[in-house]
Design brief:
With 148 residues, this protein is an alpha+beta fold. It has a single domain (8-146), classed as 2-Layer Sandwich (Beta Polymerase, domain 2). The chain contains six helices and six strands. The protein has helices at residues 8-13, 16-26, 34-40, 94-106, 124-131, 136-146; strands at residues 30-32, 51-56, 61-64, 69-74, 83-86, 89-92. It has a four-stranded mixed β-sheet with strand order 1-2-4-3. β5 and β6 form a beta hairpin. α3 (34-40) runs antiparallel to α4 (94-106) and α4 crosses α6 (136-146). The longest helix has 13 residues, at 94-106.
Length: 148
């Protein structure tokens, strides 16, 4: 996306929903995921500041601004599912955000402190259903964490 301007004073006051909407528009298609989504759902105690993580199908890239960084991780089209539209942006369901993080961890390209994840925030049936579409290494990590 070209020619997008945000006044510098506006960055400090930007709400999550505004940042998420901008993230979706900077790379289309994409959805908010990984620790950004887990923190949004209060499913992790890990806190991220000044950057927003998304999943995309076009390419892995970073967009760096004065006050924020937007990170996009490419996944195969078969793994581009499990998100919902809230207000004016797309965000992964908590279960999908966790699976995205575990999957990218198996590729050696992501770190998630699994001890910070609140298991009570997830629908185990949905985790099982979504996990069937992921490679075996991702399912193995999930089984270790949840004994499912």
């Amino acid at each position: 996306m070209r020619d997008v301007y945000v006044l510098s004073g506006r960055w400090e006051r930007a709400r999550d929903d505004e940042l998420f909407m901008l993230a979706n528009r900077l790379q289309v298609p994409s959805y908010i995921s990984l620790t950004t989504a887990l923190a949004f759902y209060e499913a992790t105690t890990q806190v991220q500041q000044d950057f927003v993580e998304s999943i995309a199908v076009k390419r892995t890239k970073k967009v760096v601004t004065v006050a924020r960084q937007f990170e996009y991780t490419k996944v195969a089209k078969e793994l581009y599912f499990g998100f919902v539209k809230r207000n004016n942006y797309f965000i992964a369901r908590p279960e999908k955000a966790l699976l995205d993080a575990l999957y990218i961890m198996t590729l050696g390209r992501y770190r998630l402190d699994v001890s910070s994840v609140d298991k009570a925030k997830f629908d185990v049936k949905l985790l099982k259903d979504f996990s069937k579409r992921f490679p075996e290494p991702t399912r193995r990590i999930l089984k270790t964490l949840w004994q499912i």
